[in-house]
């Protein structure tokens, strides 16, 4: 039900209060039940909800409580069996992004290293969806700290190479459509030499991203794909500076993706957005608007 609410499939007059009620009820019932597997999942959901409502300090307090309760060896497999992936462990990664955007960069880096060195080696490499959700917030922390190429290599190792090894050509998974845009952005922002700029620019102009539901899901774990595509267009527009027509097309395409991203990260009305996404979109949107006015 919580996923359907966040995806906009269930609507109430006061969605914020309704979400808070559901999450608190989940926590209370998990405590009464006494099974730490369900309590870990409930606390992870509560921390995520508080962060989306802009109550980052409270979210980090809940994460600290989860840290004291959660033990990978005791709880991870059970959480995956009950909920499909280990959302409690994933909240450790999410908290790194919350810390980074709150100005606690050293602590954010510390959490990244904990996830990468202590949690990821214990994860089932065949559960690529879980791995992707685990590392996704970390990618944006590392990018923010000037380590885009390291982020790219982490994603290649835990996601694309693992998927190819265990499932092979022709297989698919829900969020696969986001993989190429994310890798392209990490390469571009890391200063990688673009070998075929014309082909990459044409791809960016025609890339549609994910459907609204999956794009919203990506927003929920760190950054929506429309925002990623917007920044790709921005960076490419700087590389084609001698081609005025292509630059104009890329800026226009980037603005289109930015507008779609805003609907996810900062929607109008009662629906709660994703402040972490919007924080990453704002500078991209501002620069695209400035280019568009020149």
Explained architecture:
This protein is 74% helix and 0% strand. α6 runs antiparallel to α7 (105-119), α13 packs antiparallel against α14 (244-265) and α13 (225-239) packs parallel to α15 (275-293). The chain is mainly α and 294 residues long. The longest helix has 22 residues, at 244-265. It contains 15 helices and no strands.
Main sheet overview: none
Please tally the β strands and state the result.
0
Total of helices: 15
Order of helices and strands: HHHHHHHHHHHHHHH
Derived from helix and strand composition plus strand pairing, the structural class reads mainly alpha
Q: Low-confidence spans: pLDDT under 50, at least 5 residues?
A: none
Helix content: over 70%
What's the gyration radius in Å? 19 Å
Summarize the structure.
The protein has helices spanning 2-6, 15-33, 36-52, 56-69, 72-83, 87-101, 105-119, 128-144, 148-166, 179-189, 197-206, 212-220, 225-239, 244-265, 275-293. With 294 residues, it is an all-alpha fold.
Output the keywords:
294 residues; mainly alpha
List the helices and strands and how they pair.
Elements: H1 2-6, H2 15-33, H3 36-52, H4 56-69, H5 72-83, H6 87-101, H7 105-119, H8 128-144, H9 148-166, H10 179-189, H11 197-206, H12 212-220, H13 225-239, H14 244-265, H15 275-293
């Amino acid at each position: 039900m919580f996923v359907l609410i966040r995806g906009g499939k269930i609507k109430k007059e006061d969605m914020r209060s309704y979400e808070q009620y559901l999450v608190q009820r989940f926590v209370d019932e998990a405590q009464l039940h006494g099974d730490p597997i369900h309590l870990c999942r409930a606390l992870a959901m509560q921390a995520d909800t508080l962060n989306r409502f802009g109550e980052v300090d409270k979210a980090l307090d809940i994460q600290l409580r989860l840290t004291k309760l959660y033990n990978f060896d005791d709880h991870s497999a059970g959480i995956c069996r009950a909920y499909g992936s280990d959302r409690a462990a994933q909240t450790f990664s999410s908290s790194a992004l919350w810390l980074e955007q709150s100005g606690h960069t050293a602590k954010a880096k510390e959490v990244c290293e904990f996830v990468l060195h202590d949690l990821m080696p214990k994860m089932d490499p065949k559960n690529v969806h879980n791995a992707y959700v685990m590392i996704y917030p970390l990618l944006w922390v590392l990018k923010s700290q000037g380590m885009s190429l390291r982020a790219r290599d982490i994603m290649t190792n835990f996601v694309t190479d693992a998927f190819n090894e265990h499932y092979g050509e022709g297989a698919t998974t829900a969020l696969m459509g986001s993989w190429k845009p994310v890798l392209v952005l990490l390469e571009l922002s890391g200063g990688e030499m673009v070998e075929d700029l014309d082909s990459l620019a044409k791809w960016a102009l025609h890339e549609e991203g994910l459907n609204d539901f999956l794009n919203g899901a990506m927003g929920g774990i760190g950054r929506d794909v429309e925002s990623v595509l917007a920044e790709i267009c921005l960076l490419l527009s700087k590389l084609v500076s001698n081609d005025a027509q292509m630059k104009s097309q890329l800026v226009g395409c980037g603005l289109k993706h930015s507008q779609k991203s805003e609907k996810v990260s900062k929607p109008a009305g009662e629906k709660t957005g994703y402040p972490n996404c919007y924080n990453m979109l704002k500078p991209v949107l501002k620069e695209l608007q400035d280019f568009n006015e020149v």
